[in-house]
Structure formats: structure tokens, C-alpha cells
Amino acid sequence: MSATEHEKGHYNDTEQHEHECSCCSCSANENIFCECDEDENEEKAVFAREIKFLSAAALLFVLLLVTEEFYSGSVNGVLLSSAFIVLYLVCGLPVLRSAMRAISKFDIFNEFTLMGAATLSAVAIGEMSEAVGVMLFYRLGEAFQERASSGSRRSIKALLATKPLSARVIKDGELIDVDPKEIVKGDIIQVMPGEMIPIDGIIRSGASDIDSSSMTGESIPVHAIQGDPVHGGTLALDGLLTIEAAGPFEDSTIARMLEMVQNAAARKSPTERFITKFAKWYTPAVFAMASMVAFIPPLTGHGELREWFYRGLVLLVISCPCALVISIPLGYFGGIGSASKRGILVKGANVFDALSKVKTAIFDKTGTLTYGRFKVTKVVTFKDISREDLLKTAASVEVGSTHPVAASIIEAAGETEIDPDALITQSSGKGMILTKGDSVTAAGNAALMRDLGITPEEVSTHGTVVHVMKDSLYMGYIVLQDSLRKESGRAIRELREQGIKEVYMLTGDRDSVARLISDELGLDGYRSELMPEDKVEALMEFCKGETEKTLYVGDGINDGPVLVTSETGIAMGGFGSQVAVEVADAVILDDSPLKVVELLRIARKTRTIVWQNVFMALGVKGVFLIGGAAGIAGLWEAVFADVGVALLAILNATRASKS
Length: 659
What we know:
Strand 18 (502-506), helix 18 (511-521) and strand 19 (525-527) form a beta-alpha-beta unit. This protein is an alpha+beta fold and 659 residues long. Residues 1-38 have low confidence and may be disordered. The chain folds into 4 domains: 3-159 and 268-335 and 604-657, no CATH class; 167-257, Calcium-transporting ATPase, cytoplasmic transduction domain A, CATH 2.70.150; 344-366 and 484-589, HAD superfamily/HAD-like (Rossmann fold, 3-Layer(aba) Sandwich), CATH 3.40.50.1000; 375-481, Calcium-transporting ATPase, cytoplasmic domain N. A 7-stranded mixed β-sheet has the order 10-22-21-20-11-18-19, sandwiched between helices. A 6-stranded antiparallel β-sheet has the order 2-1-3-9-4-7, with no helix packed on it.
């Protein structure tokens, strides 16, 4: 790869680079999501050309070193020096040009200017071979840094690559290829076997096994038939489907996933913000120290200028904090990518830092610890009202609700007519009310009945109870039962193994139901019969006001306020609630509480790797700074302290993206 090619391939990013460190890996870091369409083969080809160029330059460099060491008496000194200078310019011209561009924008303290200043100064004092060596190994290190750092980004790029590029819409009996962004609610989409489903919708005809591994991390396909919902970004494996679009592309699951993962790049963790501030002061401070080391001792009569000037150059090469500024964001990106592969969308690196402090976990019950799939087990009627009439009356009200209880009642009632003239409203945490003229129908808990002046029947049966009234007449009640998720017990046990000291549950359900589940799971406590606004107060009571150490997990229904109150809010079950997606810090795309444990493990592994890099970089640079000032370390050692440590830190950071 020529110097010009390298400059175009790596160094042009400095024009948009506003970081304290302007190396190519940092620039690639900032444009992480702009690369999702980059051809992987082209990336390999660029790297191969760079390695070939640097190998040829290294071979010539070794020949010049051998000539200088063993045949200097037989070769003209000016000719040998000229050869070193030519090789230096061939290797270093892209770096020097980037340094000049940075200086023209008053960005003085970056790797290009530091490397340029150090090597040019080495040339000036006659250290030709060391100047070439520093520049050659710097270029080699940058090439491997870019190659290694791309691995941390690959899992996120793979997720972005799941964005469907086209869709076939059936219009007037014809198939038309359109951009998924042009799809509107109600459009009929055809999906062939082996194709990606481009939009969220309902299957209108056909059946197929659906591979949702790219979305949820679940490797086992799910069989979907007519009437089943499907999500954009999943794969239809073996059947031809026609799907009715549930809405525009921007509201689809895959579109929201892409937006959330892309936005995660902008949400820096406290650790990242600290390192950014640290780098802003560290590099100029070391630059000043290098200047003092170079000039103060000889000016005060403590040695020769050339000797101390050389030591100052060593400090310049060491001073760039690239190992920190590159590897820390890449470590967090690796963690975000690892979580996304498992169907856990993390909204930013700050979530990982928050999870490291969590000591209390609080779960919603319905749809989180339980399946949220209710079955009607008992119907009790009064005043000669039939079972069918009670169910249909309840269903006529519940059609305005998205709660799992409402869906189960509607299913049990069978076909339900929707009255277009009726007004349906929700009494938060209590139930639903239908009003039509002077007629009032309600279905909900005992508190709703009492609000409407009705005395409900006392019910001792285990399960969730929905009371029904119409026009001041109490009609009866419906009992529904939910079942505990088989993995909930294991999730609670593993949370405790991860260092979570207390686990609680909040629910709007009856106390008898909540107590049964709490005892079965071995929870530290629970609160039952809660309104949505009461959940915030209960959470504050459980965590004793220390919300920064609290994790809340809910299915998103009526959970908005409490998700915001806790330091880390996790919405389970995908994108059922738009509010939950907006306010939650992480979204689990399937319904397994075990994913909460996985998220904690990923967060803690990521944080461990990040701090390993911090201590390694500062420790090694500190040792070499002292060695350089003392005259023990030369420019060769300085190259390792800068480029070598940065490369080691990046390789360590890529572990965050692995299982």
C-alpha cells in the first residue's frame, strides 16, 4: 500500500476528529456506525496492502541498519543518511501531513503531532535510524490496531446488516419491490422462504418456521401460522407468507433496534467521560514535562543538550494516551455488541457502569416472573346473568386495553363487537370503563367497583379477579390464573450469585397471589394491590432511597414511572410498550428473566476489561516515562510504551464482545 493510499484509508478522518487523540483507531471508533455497509473483503485487502508495503519498508530498513553497523566505512555517509531520510519520508509522510492539518486547526496535542515532532527532532540530532524505526513501527502498530478494533465493532455491524433492503408489496394483484421505509400500515407484503421479513405485521396466509436469532438470540425457530404476529428482521425459513403491515417501517422492531444500538454510541459511561477529561490534561502536561526534561538540565549545567533533548523526545513518543482513549470505548462497544447478539439492547455504556453498583433487584410480576398468559378458570354470575353474557360484557370493555388479562377475557368471550359510538377509558391500575350516553359498563378490580359505588363480592379463590358491572348492576366476576415462568427460580438464584443481595416483587395483583409467588421464589419481600403510582413509592421503600443501587425489571405495561425512578430500568418482552422502550435503560427482546443475569455478567466483564486497560496503560506508561527521563529507555522502548501498549489494550478490549 502506498503512502498516499494509507493517508486516504486512515488519516483523512482527522478532519472530523474532535477527540483528544487523533489516531486512526480513534477516528474509526467515532465512525463505528458509518461502516456497517463497508465490504469486509475490502477491509482485508486494505490491511494486506498496508502489511506488504510495511514489510518491504522493513526489509529495506534492515539492510540500511546492517550497512550502517558493519559497512559504514565503505559507504558514503551522506548517501547513507539520504537513504534513511527517503525511507523516513516514505513511511512518515501521511503522519506528517495529518499532523500539519491538525496544527492548522489548533489541535496540537495529538499522536500525529507528537510522533512528527519526535521523529523530526531525532533526524535533526542525527538519530536517523531511530527516527525511521519509530515511524515504521508506529505505522505497523496503527495497522494492527485498526484490524483488531474492527473485531469489537463486528457484532454491532452484523446487527445493523440485518436491516432489510427491500420488500415486495402486493398491489392490485402485482408484486412491486419497494424500500421498506415506503411501507404503510395495511400494506400486504409477500415473503418467500429463506427471506428476511421486512416489517412488523400479522400473517394473513401461509405458515413458516421463523428464525429470530438475530433479534432475540434464541436459536430455536418458532412455527408461525395465519393470524400470528411476526417482526421485521426475523427470517422466514421454509414457507411462503403474506403479511399485513402493522405500521410504518420506523415503528417496526428492527428499526427501533437499529436506532437504539446506534444511539448507544453517544451515551458515554462515567469512566469514558473521566478518561476524556484526563486525556485533555495528561497529554499537554507530559508535553510540558518533555520540554522541561529537554532544556532545564543542560541550561543549569547538568549535562549536554543533545543527551537531554533525546530524553525529551522519548517522553514525547510515550505521552499520547491512545491506549486509554481507543480501548475504553471499544471495550464498551464490545459489551453492547455482545448483549445485542443475545437479544439484549443496551442504550449506552453508562448502563454498564450503573449495573456494576446494583445491590437490589425489583421485578414486576405479570409478564416478567410469570408468563402473562392468563386463562379463565372460573366465571361467577349474579341476577340470572349467563356465563356468556358476563364474558361478552367484560370483553366489550376490555377491547380498549392491551393488558394480558384483557386479551384472555376477549379470547374466552369469542367474537366481540366494537361499538364505534362508545367511549372507553382506563382507570390506571384498576380496570376499564365503557360509557355510551347514560350507560356505564366497567370491568376491573374491587377498587374500581367501589369507585363506581358498587360493593363487589369477596373472593377467596386463588387467581386474578375481574369484577364486572353495568348500569349500577353488579353482574359477577371472572377468575383468571397465570403461571410462574419455569426459569424464574433459576434467575433469582443466579442473581444472588452475581452479588444481588435483595430481590423484591411489585404487583397490582391480589395479596394471596403475590404471596404464593414470593414464597415459591424465595423473594425478600413483595408489595401487592399497587396502583402504577404506588410502585414508585414501594421501590423507594425497598431500596431505602438508594435508587442508584437498584435495578427494576418490568414488562413495560404501567411501568414507565418506576423504570425512570430506578437507576437501571429493564423492559422485558420486546417492544410491547413504546413508553417502556423510551424510558428503559435496556430492553430484553424475549421474555426470559435469565437475560437479566446475562446482562449483569456482560456488564461486569466489560467493566473489568475497561479497568484492566486503564491500569495497564497508566502503569506501563508511568514506568517508561520514568525510564525515559532517567535515560534508561530510548525511542525503541518508547514505541512499545505507546503503540505496543495501545495494541495490547485494544486486543484486551475485544474480549468484551466474546461469550
